[in-house]
Specification:
Layout (H helix, E strand, L loop, with lengths): L1 E6 L6 H11 L3 E4 L3 H8 L12 H16 L6 H12 L3 E4 L4 H11 L2 H31 L1 H11 L1 H23 L5 E6 H10 L5 E4 L1 H5 L1 H13 L5
Parallel strand pairs: 1-4, 1-5, 2-3, 2-4
Length: 234
């Protein structure tokens, strides 16, 4: 059994994620983290970055911290909730992501001048409009994620290739490795990864819970009912 939760790192969804993990009773919880981020997050240093970190990495972390605070959330709070809930039910916690700092170095090195300029202008807009811009992007993605990602791919080809495409492939391989050992796994990844990873899992059945469902109370109630009804007897 594979349950995949599509999250948003700056939204207040820790309780929803925790519920899903606990009542899916997984053997393993696979999280979109590398070992360095896992250590930082579980040591309550998830939002801190080093001056030696790539500039894009530091800027991204600062932006996520700002938006998370406005949303009443903790950066990476949903990942921490998944980890803690997994430990409560005795699940193995497995990091499945590539090293985030190395990814951002590759992005910086691979960007063309035009893409770099577009990204800089977009970052200025993000800082000006902050939370509203994030919410608009979330609604646009939820309405039609294929169209949204295609537009992003045209504007920021290196960013999408490195942050989405290559990581989808990497994380899918880690999921397949875990499935050789565990029968029931919960996979917790950013919502933009869900569709791509599901397609790469070669027709395996995956039950998904998307960010839009967790952000809507009525939809989340239906998710809870669905998960509660499949809870094994203990």
């Amino acid at each position: 059994m594979i349950t995949m939760i599509g999250t948003g790192h700056v939204f207040r969804i820790a309780d929803q994620v925790s519920f899903i993990v606990k009542y899916t009773w997984p053997d393993a919880v696979l999280v979109e983290l590398d070992e360095r981020r896992y250590t930082a997050l579980t040591n309550d240093a998830g939002g801190k970055t080093s001056e030696k970190s790539p500039k894009l990495y530091r800027e991204s972390a600062e932006y996520q911290n700002k938006i998370s605070e406005k949303n009443g959330a903790k950066p990476g709070g949903e990942m921490l909730a998944a980890i803690l809930a997994g430990k409560v039910v005795g699940a193995e916690i497995i990091c499945i992501d590539k090293d985030a700092e190395q990814i951002m170095r590759e992005v910086e090195e691979g960007m063309s001048s035009f893409e770099r300029i577009r990204y800089s202008l977009s970052s200025v807009t993000d800082r000006l409009f902050g939370r509203n811009r994030v919410n608009v992007a979330h609604r646009s993605f939820a309405a039609n994620e294929e169209t949204f990602l295609n537009k992003m791919r045209k504007r920021f080809p290196t960013l999408v290739e490195k942050l989405i495409d290559e990581r989808n492939v990497y994380m899918t391989e880690r999921i397949k490795e875990a499935l050789e050992k565990y029968n029931n796994v919960v996979v917790v990844v950013g919502d933009a990864h869900v569709r791509g990873i599901c397609e790469l899992l070669d027709g395996m059945h995956v039950e998904t819970v998307r960010l839009a469902e967790m952000m809507d109370q009525e939809s989340m109630n239906k998710v809870k009912t669905r998960i509660w009804n499949r809870k094994p007897e203990v």
